[in-house]
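Raw record, unedited: N-dimethylarginine dimethylaminohydrolase
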Amino acid sequence: MRYAINPWMREDTEVDTGLARAQWETLIDAYRDHGHRVEFIEPVVGLPDMVFAANSALVLGGRVFGSRFHAPQRRPEQLAYERWFKAAGFDVHPPESVCEGEGDLVPAGPFVLAGTGFRTTRAAHQEVQEFFGVPTISLLLVDPYFYHLDTALFVLDDQNIAYYPEAFSPGSREVLQRLYPDALIATRDDAMAFGLNSVSDGRHVFVAPRATGLIDQLTDRGYVPVPVDLSELHKAGGGIKCCTQEIR
């Protein structure tokens, strides 16, 4: 790796780029096999984290709230993604504060759940609420391994979520308990296996295969787990959701 900007990254770690690409293509195939449309952005040489497209923006109601990355190494991605959205016919609102897109902004029914503590700032949460007019609920992350909200929580459907409580401050845990008393609660093992960096379409849940306890819980709740192994990308601190920017 060329640099390390989160606890999962190690500069001396060797990444099998062929395997990483094959795993990424498996994710694309899984989405298409389940009826989802997939679009692509051309990679830019020297910007390896562009694969984590979720961090580029939040798209909600056809409106795009862009990114302003915390790490200098990722800031050039902002322009590349802005160009893609504009070419696709979207206007892009650039944030004034540090904001890392769907990494920390998770639409959940009538709310946007918004993470802070390591990357996206609380000021950005306020910008999001003003821009979309959607109640935006700040949640404080406290464990560096779960530096983005999408590593600690994902939306199952419009009514419910799955999350790992210990990734959050006591007050934020209480907020989640009040909002989602029937939430699916993940263990640390499943969270560390990137089980919560998942994507749900309301029935199928694209999930890391090593999150076996979470997969069992999903099955018990009536969801259909679709295991997709992105173990090479885990070395950079990302998984299924990190690679997926949802266009709503």
